[in-house]
Amino acid sequence: MIIFGWPVRSKDIGPAFYVECPNCRNGVMFWLVKQRRWFSIYFIPLLPLSFKHHYLLCEVCELSVEIKNEDVMLAKKAVDEMDRLEGGEITEDECMDTLVDLAAETTVFGGEPV
Question: Phi then psi for 31, rounded to 5 degrees?
Fold first, then answer.
């Protein structure tokens, strides 16, 4: 008996934008998540079956919004800023200023940071 499938594997990249969620109306951090479907045998992923898809995920209501191209690049920059904040390289005010600017540039939130 051969066990095979094509599960979706997700990878949490990190926190990206602190904005008001359009679904639950909470001021929350949206997390950048990467997903890809794989062909697997005996639960071991062998071949990717689809391209990478990037999503922003609300940490409260779990609303997911697919993002592409420029929005993915902006979200990755926001994740890098959060990493710099955690590493002590920048202050919280500097980080929030950058995150507000990046969120305003995205087509997802339309410049509505909290």
Answer: -100, 140
Counted residue by residue, the chain has a size of 114
Rounded to 5°, angle at Cα 104 from 102 and 105: 65
Query: Residue type at 106?
Result: T
Round to whole Å and give the CA distance between 44 and 63: 29
User: What are the φ and ψ backbone dihedral angles of 10, each rounded to 5 degrees?
Assistant: -110, 145
Structure tokens at 89: 């390289």
The enclosing H or E element of 22 equals: none
Of 16-30, 59-73, 99-113, give the lowest mean pLDDT range. 99-113
3-state secondary structure of 106: coil
